[in-house]
Amino acid sequence: MRKRVTTLEGILAFGLLIAVGLPAHAQDGSKNRFFKGLSTGLEFYRQIEASGGWPSVPAGDTLKPGLNHPRVTALRQRLSISGDYIGAETDSPVYDEELKQAVIAYQDRNGQEPDGVVGKSTIASLNIPVTSRIKQMKINLERWRRMPASLGKKFVLVNMAGFELEAIEGHKTVLEMRVVVGKAYHDTPMFSDTIRTIEINPYWNVPPSIANGELLPSYVKGTAKAAEQGFEIMRGGKPVAIDSVDWSSHIGKTLPFNIRQRPGPTNALGDMKFLFPNKHNVYLHDTNARSLFAKTVRAFSHGCVRLQKPRELATYLLQVNGDWPRERIDQVVASGINTTAKLAAPMPVHLAYMTAWLDRKGFVQFRPDIYGRDAKLAKELNL
């Protein structure tokens, strides 16, 4: 077993200073603190590379707690080098509880189901060479470099690759939640904007691409279910029943009217949406498909961002208004009445795509490149 090139505690303690904004050294004001934090993580992985990297875990049957096998020794040594396993015993072939917890920690920070069972996907991730991880961090450093040095004193940050949203004040996360983002072929774009209004009990104005490509073919077969779900068409600014149209006559054509869904329990946007008008027509919103938040990989939408805790976010954003406590939000939702609340203090929002970052505990998090954007940026950077 090779000797570790540095103590994990030392390098990560330094990383934590950066992550919480403490004066570890004179910081470059042109780079935000997330750039600084990941730079620290990169230094740790460069030291691992200089020491020879980490061993591969041989392919084979699934490794589970209680197993006694030479491959377990390779697993233990691999996780020791990356800092996930911190036990003193690195040569044991027994898959014990301490190693299980190390595997869970590794899976959790690599976007995998944290079950402590090492199957094909976990082994494939473990066997990604340190040089590839260094490249991944460089790609994400470039992404942070291209974002504003100051993201705002208070801001909302969505990481699409991490399927997470954070509301951040200074260096403190005050609210966090899971999100669902766009499918690979409906990928959510990267941009920064400002949340200005919240629409409670929203109408869903169906985008033409969905109306023509998905709803029209289904309506030809019948509209009874659509009517029950609150769908209607808009003619001259007035709602018209969904069953008043000969849908078969529109096959192969662009619909000459809009389709919308009324507020209600079946509305695709759920109870509310958070608006920051932009050219992408993307926004944050609630959802009636809440079971998707239990999944590890959450790329299911048509491009907008679905929120696990929309009422909590609304409460946070509207607290400066002074007249929108949680009780009032709940009452308006229960009324079913379409209502718009304007933020007294508009909030910066950043839709980012980070497949590597330093977390608040000082560990580097990695995620799969669900949109294939890492490869494109690597080519641009000649990495």
Helix content: 25-40%
- Number of helix segments? 11
Low-pLDDT segments: 1-30
**Beta-strand fraction estimate:** 15-25%
Provide a brief overview of the structure.
The chain is α+β, with helices and mostly antiparallel strands and 383 residues long. It contains 11 helices and 15 strands.
Walk me through this protein's architecture:
The N terminus is likely disordered. A hairpin with a 2-residue loop joins β6 and β7. The chain is built from eleven helices and 15 strands. It has an eight-stranded mixed barrel. Strands 5-8-6-7 form a four-stranded antiparallel beta sheet. By secondary structure, the chain is an alpha+beta fold. The protein is elongated.
What descriptive keywords fit this protein?
single chain; alpha+beta; elongated; disordered N terminus; 15 strands; 8-stranded mixed barrel; 4-stranded antiparallel sheet; 383 residues
